[in-house]
């Protein structure tokens, strides 16, 4: 069984899509499986959101890298707080002459699930390495899209579970019924779609007990 959150969710979904013979079940947290679109991802994002969408802001090498690495502690504090539950889901579109962190105010306090010790771990990991490795994943979106041409329109046939926070910016504005209907169109054996009230983007950190229970129940169902 493969489980992934955020960018890990597309990795989990595509593992099940490309190698169903090796996957008993797939769980995606936060990011639903939408299938392969007809246009390059960067073109589709520009058409729907304009040139300031954060993924497009990430494309030029060096720009977001420098912004995020200037003060890693402030980056993680603002990013994690602004996308947590209890805040209004933000529209991640960067205006000309600004940066991604300009969308994310300095929090008065950390969310209950996040501690200064947690931030210490993130800062230690990124202080030396920087953010370029992660940003390069975004910069390969179109290449990844091109490599999956043979699976265009193909659904995932293995058992699947989706879990997300109701306040997650990834699914903001999508009614629950419409989300489930869309999932059923790409996941032919959808065993459940759980939306956690009051939860933001960081599902497993914000609601560890509920997420763990959902995954354990799913694992028992497909074993």
UniProtKB/TrEMBL annotation:
The UniProt record lists the keyword Ribonucleoprotein: no
Keyword Hydrolase: yes
UniProt keywords, alphabetically: Hydrolase
Residue ranges of every copy of the AB hydrolase-1 domain listed in the record: 2-214
PANTHER family for this protein: EPOXIDE HYDROLASE
Protein name per Swiss-Prot or TrEMBL: AB hydrolase-1 domain-containing protein
Organism: Pseudonocardia adelaidensis
């Amino acid at each position: 069984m493969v489980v992934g959150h955020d960018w890990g969710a597309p990795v989990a979904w595509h593992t099940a899509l490309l190698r169903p013979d090796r996957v008993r079940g797939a769980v995606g947290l936060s990011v639903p499986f939408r299938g392969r679109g007809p246009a390059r991802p960067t073109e589709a994002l520009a058409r729907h959101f304009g040139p300031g969408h954060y993924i497009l802001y990430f494309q030029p090498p060096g720009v977001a890298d420098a912004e995020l690495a200037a003060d890693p502690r402030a980056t993680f504090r603002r990013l994690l707080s602004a996308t947590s539950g209890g805040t209004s889901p933000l529209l991640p579109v960067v205006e000309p002459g600004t940066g991604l962190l300009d969308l994310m105010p300095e929090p008065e306090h950390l969310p209950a699930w996040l501690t200064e010790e947690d931030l210490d771990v993130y800062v230690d990991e990124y202080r030396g390495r920087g953010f370029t490795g992660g940003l390069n994943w975004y910069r390969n979106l179109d290449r990844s899209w091109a490599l999956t041409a043979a699976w265009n329109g193909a659904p995932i046939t293995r058992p699947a579970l989706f879990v997300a926070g109701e306040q997650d910016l990834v699914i903001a504005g999508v009614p629950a019924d419409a989300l489930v209907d869309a999932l059923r169109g790409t996941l032919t054996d959808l065993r459940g779609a759980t939306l956690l009230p009051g939860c933001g983007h960081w599902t497993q950190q914000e609601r560890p007990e509920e997420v763990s229970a959902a995954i354990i129940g799913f694992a028992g169902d497909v074993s």
